[in-house]
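Ligand: adenosine-5-diphosphoribose. Inputs:
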Amino acid sequence: MNDLAPLRLDDDLRVLVLTGAGVSAESGIATFRDSNGLWEQHRVEDVASPEGFARDPALVWRFYSLRREAAAKCAPNPGHAALAALEDRLGDRFLLATQNIDGLHGVAGNTRVVEMHGNLYTTRCSGCDRRPFRDDSLHPDAVPRCDRCGSMLRPHIVWFGERLDPADLQRIEDFIRAARGHRMVFLAAGTSGVVYPAAGLVDVCRRAGAETVLVNLEAPDNVGAFDRVITGRSGEVLPALFV
Ligand code: APR
Ligand code: ZN
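Predicted complex:
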């Protein structure tokens, strides 16, 4: 199972990377489905769904305030750094789709990033069409209100039952389409592969002719979709993966 042979970079190579919570685990950020993960301590439907927000918005803001506070203390790890270095080498032949909301890929230096599930430090209004805005404020007690229209503010995060931003999906599709006819690698790292549409990207890329590689602490359910599986910590494997 552990195929540690490094991936050779050449001028034709396109790389689409998909990251999940496991990539930030070594930075000290809690994952969702591991033991002691966030979804063992919180009910998903209470803190990460539109229905939960409608029922108890203060609880939702308490949850995301804790996430903001915890993530603010964390720094990128060598796995993030390796992906930033890879983008430096490949430029537009690289795209990073992340399910992570912690922003650490940007801190590490990646710029070609699609934050599929939104961003922890971005807030938007639930009532008016004002643009989502950068926000690191904490609201452990009361629900913040929009100073333009008075509606409740909410985290700019894609919750269960919500659609991803079509522009984000388009950007990923465009990258895959442009990679046709070239050598392409799809690299997933630190994700349990159960949340769609992210979990379906491996199949899309495989149909487009990509070599599919997974770096994960343990083999998840969708392991069969990958040509190569490397079990290990992303902070240790990713820095050695590309030569
Ligand atoms: N290196 C590599 N993989 C790791 C590491 C590590 N250091 N630590 C944990 N992992 C692996 C776990 O084995 C697990 O398979 O990372 C995976 C994390 O899985 P999840 O907790 O399910 O996180 P993710 O796949 O990102 O979840 C997807 O679900 O609720 C949501 O919206 C949330 O974006 C999230 C989505
Ligand atoms: Zn408003």
